[in-house]
Specification:
Length: 199
């Protein structure tokens, strides 16, 4: 054989070919994994939006129970019992009796509804509202300082000018008992509040 016909392969060439082969195999594996993930994602059903999930939720238990009380949208109406074996002449009498029973039931339901409506329209006794005043001063800067300090501790305030005085009070009034609890928290925060009735 002549020298031309011989192919010489040295160790560097073998390593280079092996490295290229391993790289191609790795690339093929990574691409296969990506294609598999994409196809799995396409086969998965679409996720529902928040609105659709909320629509699928059952009604609150209170609303479900209102149906049984007769306050819900689907009021229970007594259905007349029909005897299939009874003669037709009795059916007319039964129909009249059923009509009377239905009209009585309807009138009772209407009277209950009227009573509920009247109870709702009656005014509840007015609850006295109270607030806490944190400071009363002639100096605007002092009133602003107290209002800022109250805001920093989590209490919303309002500043009112009455008879030349700047008065810093809590923005949200409440019952006397509630204001006493808030006053305790304000005292722990370093304020000297006093309760006053909202007019």
């Amino acid at each position: 054989m002549s020298q031309r016909d011989q192919i010489s392969i040295n160790s560097q060439s073998i390593l280079w070919v092996a490295g290229v082969g391993v790289g191609l195999l790795t690339l093929a594996f990574v691409l296969g994994v990506q294609v598999g993930k994409q196809s799995a994602a396409l086969r998965r059903p679409m996720q529902k939006g928040v609105e659709e999930e909320l629509r699928d939720l059952p009604e609150p238990l209170v609303d479900q129970l209102k149906i049984f009380e007769g306050d819900g949208p689907d009021k229970l109406v007594p259905t007349p019992k029909v005897d299939a074996t009874a003669p037709k002449a009795d059916t007319k009498a039964d129909t009249k009796a059923d009509t009377k029973a239905e009209s009585k039931a309807e009138s009772k339901a209407e009277s209950r509804a009227d009573a509920k409506a009247e109870a709702k329209t009656e005014k509840a006794p007015e609850v006295e509202l109270w607030t806490l005043q944190l400071v009363s001063t002639e100096e605007i800067a002092e009133a602003k300082l107290v209002a800022d300090k109250a805001k920093a501790t989590g209490f919303a305030t309002t500043t009112v000018k009455e008879k030349g005085q700047m008065k810093v009070r809590l923005a949200k009034p409440g019952t006397r008992a509630a204001m006493e609890k808030v006053a305790d928290r304000l005292k722990k925060a370093g304020f000297k509040p006093f309760a006053m009735r909202v007019e």
